[in-house]
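Contributing new complexes? Match this layout with 5'-deoxyadenosine.
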Amino acid sequence: MREGYIEVLERVTSAIEPSKDDLIYLLETKDTKEYTILSQAACDIRDIYCGKRMAIRGLVEFSSFCKNTCKYCGLNRYNKTASRYRLNPDEIIKLADHVYTAGFHTIVLQSGEDGYPAQEIAKIITSIKVKFNIAITLSVGERSFEDYQLWKEAGADRYLLRIETKDRLLYKSLHQGRNVETRLQALKDLQSLGYQTGSGIMIGSPGQTIEHIANDILFLTKEAFDMIGIGPFIPHEKTPFARYPKGPVQLTLNTLALLRICTKNTWIPATTALGSLERDYRLDALMAGANVVMPNFSPESIKKKYEIYPNKSCVKEKEESVHMLCKNLASKAGLEIDYARCDSLKVT
Ligand code: 5AD
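Output block (do not edit by hand):
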């Protein structure tokens, strides 16, 4: 263990705005003793600020069409071999029924940047809200302010939009023809409309340095997002980044723990990406301060087609075993499953 480790950790824990150098020092944690202390500190903070509980969200991936060009993602529009599908409103509402019947009180509607008509999405939101007592989270990429507003008025509660990186140059090198300013504006718009807003980053994307990650931790802390998703980059064969290595697991867990320590009362999922490596690291994520699991309710026939990266853990998971999965993860992590909506913990 490095000398002074505990002092740096204490400084970061109590700071309103930690120093970048301290964050970099803690991000570099590799020693098992250091990691035990870091992850324990993160779990202590989670338990105090969020309770000793794990929220569950039902994920439905309703379209794999995408007009975006993210160089890491298997759904990017240049991947001509990707299988594209789009569920119709009735199919989506039926899946919301599955999610609700399974005892979940949040549904996450996710898709590529499909261009699904805004009015149709609004109708789906309203139908789900009328039928089921369930929170709706949208994760459909960048749209216009008017669309966000329409969906909020239709009853959507939350929106997930990862920044991926706050760094202008890195953002440009990951997303051909797009810029971080638009992304930042979208996040501002969502927050101003009253959405519980989630963001997050990928760890180990090509060109990313530890300094980028430290800056992103500071950004995610300052913006007080209600939810933060963190996962390792996983190369997809049919993308320009096919030959780059996976994001390091330890660095992903260190980042997660530090986000917990810095942001305190945030919903942080043990992401599918962390479950899709050489083994399932979702339990490790919960033991590093995460407190959400998002089982996949997409039908078997389409799960494989929503291939943002290969070997997604959920492809092997059956709807019937969702409860076992959640129960196992929660009990091993020493958490109680919270079946309620689990709204934002931030004071507004
Ligand atoms: N590896 C890891 N995460 C990825 N995502 C997209 N492609 C990949 C990949 N190859 C993540 C992005 C996106 C979220 C839905 O999935 O962070 O925001």
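Reviewers usually confirm one structural detail per submission. For this one: The two ends are 40 Å apart (CA to CA).
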